[in-house]
Write a structure and sequence with these properties.
about 50% helix, alpha+beta
Length: about 400
């Protein structure tokens, strides 16, 4: 038992602060989408839902007219929530998008990550390492996050080993947090009982999070799950392909600056709609929407489309399609039911890591668990320092005697 105590202590002491930062920043990111939409509601929500949405092709031409020639539209995402604006995905920069009110045709704004959440994300993934996280070479921040997370897993397991012998005698007392013994008793209760309450959640976050840190761990994780790790399969549907097809599409050239009306004064969707690269997008959306009434969002691109199947479970589960841009005929190319096991597991890893697999309830539990996880090193430091002080006092008293 003393062996496990030493492992628990001497691994936790040097990495405790980093673990706290990782857990805290992770907790802050759980509700980023909802908070962002609340803060920037004028961008993400329409002012009125009166009337019918304008045709997607017409909306895309409005956005296209506002873009520089070097940027193209790669797709549009339509949400099941009728109050949400349409998200128009752009070819660059990375993950760029704009939002348009589908009822008025007004562009409401562009995607901008709130500074606080951008900092929390960089802290969570790379400890604010200034190096390009997507480039080649060693990334110190990313490596420290991975090592600290691995240390956290070991500390959690050794903590259970240390806790269990005493817990068997009085489980209720071992899981209680109170002020009966003053601040020291409170901090100890938060460390011991709090650790047990958060155990399942932080272990789930840590074990899944490590798949982004180490290739060897990712391969082992997939193997334990009975799945062979393979590169991500995008089902022949990718933003890069969509952007390339859009840029090289001969039809629709010369309409770059046409705005919402063509050169002859005709509205897009009427006389010249057959020339637009977006001519069949509304038709494709209508058909996929009728086929998938429970879908949370549908994304249409140049000759490609994807249907997100649900908000709970694997939130990244989607069926992918291709369509003929002249006739609008749709062909399934990658149904989620037929996806590779590795692709399905990849989505589940993200869902479990973020707590999104069970909807709002699990996300709340994950956020609370991450906050408790962030407190564990701090309460552990307090207990350790108090123990050192008490030990020093005893040593001084013995010397005096």
């Amino acid at each position: 038992m003393n062996f496990f105590r030493k492992i628990h202590l001497w691994l936790s002491v040097p990495f405790g602060i980093i673990i706290t930062l990782i857990c805290f920043s992770g907790a802050m990111l759980v509700f980023e989408p909802e908070i962002t939409r609340c803060v920037r509601s004028d961008v993400y929500y329409v002012k009125s839902t009166e009337g019918e949405p304008l045709p997607i092709g017409e909306l895309m031409e409005t956005v296209k007219a506002s873009l520089p020639d070097s940027v193209s539209i790669t797709g549009v995402t339509v949400f099941s929530d009728k109050d949400r604006t349409y998200q128009v995905n752009l070819s660059k920069p990375r993950r760029a998008s704009m939002f348009i009110d589908q009822y008025s045709g007004l562009i409401t704004g562009k995607y901008e990550r709130i500074g606080f959440f951008s900092t929390m994300f960089k802290l969570h993934r790379w400890l604010l390492d200034s190096a390009n996280p997507h480039g080649d070479g060693l990334k110190i921040g990313k490596m420290l996050v991975g090592i600290s997370t691995l240390v956290f897993v070991i500390a959690l397991i050794t903590g259970v080993v240390i806790w269990w012998p005493r817990a068997r005698k009085s489980l209720r007392h071992s899981l209680s947090i109170s002020f009966k013994n003053g601040w020291r008793g409170l901090w100890k209760g938060l460390h011991v009982a709090g650790g047990m309450y958060a155990l399942v959640f932080v272990l789930a976050m840590s074990l899944t999070g490590l798949t982004w840190s180490f290739n060897w761990y990712r391969s082992a994780f997939y193997a334990v799950c009975g799945v062979e790790h393979t590169p991500r399969n995008l089902g022949n549907v990718s933003n890069e392909k969509t952007a390339r097809e859009t840029r090289t599409d001969g039809e629709g050239r010369g309409e770059r600056r046409g705005g919402r009306r063509g050169g002859n004064g005709e509205r897009y969707g009427e006389g010249r709609s057959h020339h637009s690269e977006f001519a069949r997008w509304q038709q494709v959306y209508d058909e996929l929407s009728s086929r998938n009434p429970g879908s949370t969002q549908i994304t249409i691109g140049a000759q490609t489309a994807s249907v997100t199947l649900g908000a709970t479970g694997n939130g990244r589960a989607s069926d992918k399609y291709e369509f003929n841009r002249r006739s609008g005929e749709i062909t399934p190319v990658a149904k989620y039911a037929d996806a590779l096991p590795a692709d399905k597991l990849r989505g589940w890893i993200y869902a479990v890591h973020t707590g999104s697999w069970g909807g709002l309830l699990t996300r709340i539990l994950w956020a609370l668990g991450a906050l408790l996880g962030a407190s564990l090193p701090l309460t552990g430091y307090y207990i350790w320092i108090k123990h050192l002080g008490k030990k020093k006092q005893h040593g001084h008293a013995a010397a005096v005697k």
